[in-house]
Amino acid sequence: MQLQEFIVNNIKIKVATTDEKTQIYSLRYKSLILDYDKSKKESEGLDKDDYDDFCDYIVAIDMNTNEVVGTYRLIRKEHAQKAGMFSTEKEFNIDNLKNKNCDILEIGRAVVKEEYRDGLVIGLLWKAVIRYALLFKIKYLFGTASFHGTDPKLYQHSLSSLYYNHLSPPDKRAFARKDSRCDLQQLPITEVDPFLAKKEMPPLIKGYLNLWATIGEGAYIDHSFKSIDVLILLEIDKINPRYLQRYLED
After folding, report:
1. Res 247: pLDDT
2. Helix (H/G/I), strand (E/B), else coil: 113
3. Among 8, 26, 91, 113, which residue has the least CB neighbours within 10 Å?
4. What is the mean pLDDT of residues 3-15?
């Protein structure tokens, strides 16, 4: 099975080939790794790990320059088995999901080149991810999304809002691993300011919430990446129909 590529405003969306992988790793290094920690200097200027040998990638290519300007990494069960586990499992216990008798898909390493962050490219990438999930009969999509830095107090309203309003159902809920866990419940519910919660929330997480994503319990502080990570869960059958319709339209 193969996702059919499509083109919108000179942006081509497709599953990446081997020829595009170096561009993917370079984009992730410049626009993801350095975005969180400018002191991280890799001699090759590439962001690559063991999972990249097994997974699929969705890429956005500017047809005017033939440059990769956006990407998502997709890891299905068969990919995770080759790698030993899902990447997310380094930070979260996802046994509730893995024990479901259905196919699941990890989505991650989402990045869009800075000049293309007007909403078009990320929207097209999401459209491709949803189509990919439907193609492979995926029921649940999951992955981590990040807040900059390692101090949860900087995001106490948004983290608390996630806890009170967006926790995953108990039978599907993931849990942050205890070695570097922090509570989402930073404030009593009466002290959470909705305006500040929205202001503190990273755009990518806002986007997932618009799709009606839910959140795992606890956050994981990734000191090496200098981020606070939360677990995002999307159930295909429960995605906001307004957005789902948009993603399925040609």
Report:
1. 77
2. coil
3. 8
4. 93
Joined together, the tokens standing for residue 7 give 């083109």
246 is a domain residue: no
Q: pLDDT tier at 47 (50, 70, 90 boundaries)? A: confident
Q: Which helix (H) or strand (E) holds 12?
A: strand 11-15
Work out whether strand 56-62 and strand 11-15 pair parallel, antiparallel, or are unpaired.
antiparallel
CATH number reported for the structural domain that contains residue 125 in this entry: 3.40.630.30
Q: Which of 40-44, 134-138, 200-204 has the lowest mean pLDDT?
A: 40-44
In whole angstroms, what is the distance from residue 97 CA to residue 94 CA?
Answer: 5
Task: Confirm whether 245 is domain-assigned.
Answer: no
Calculate ∠ Cα 230-232-238, nearest 5°. Answer: 155
Q: Does 104 have pLDDT greater than 90?
A: yes
Best CA proximity match to 70, nearest among 19, 128, 18: 128
Please state the pTM of the whole predicted model. 0.91
Separation of alpha carbons 214 and 200, rounded Å = 18
Residue 57's pLDDT is 95
- CA dist 178 and 167 (Å) reads 18
Query: What tokens appear for 97 in the block?
Result: 């999901």
- State what percent of residues in the chain have pLDDT above 70: 95
**DSSP-based three-state secondary structure for 58:** strand
Number of structural domains the chain divides into: 1
The per-residue pLDDT for 133 is 95
Question: What domain range is 70 assigned to?
Answer: 6-240
Tell me whether residue 57 is in a domain.
Answer: yes
Burial 7-36 (b: 16+ CB within 10 A, else e): eeeebebbbbeeebbebbbbbbbbbbbbee
Tell me if 217 is assigned to some domain: yes
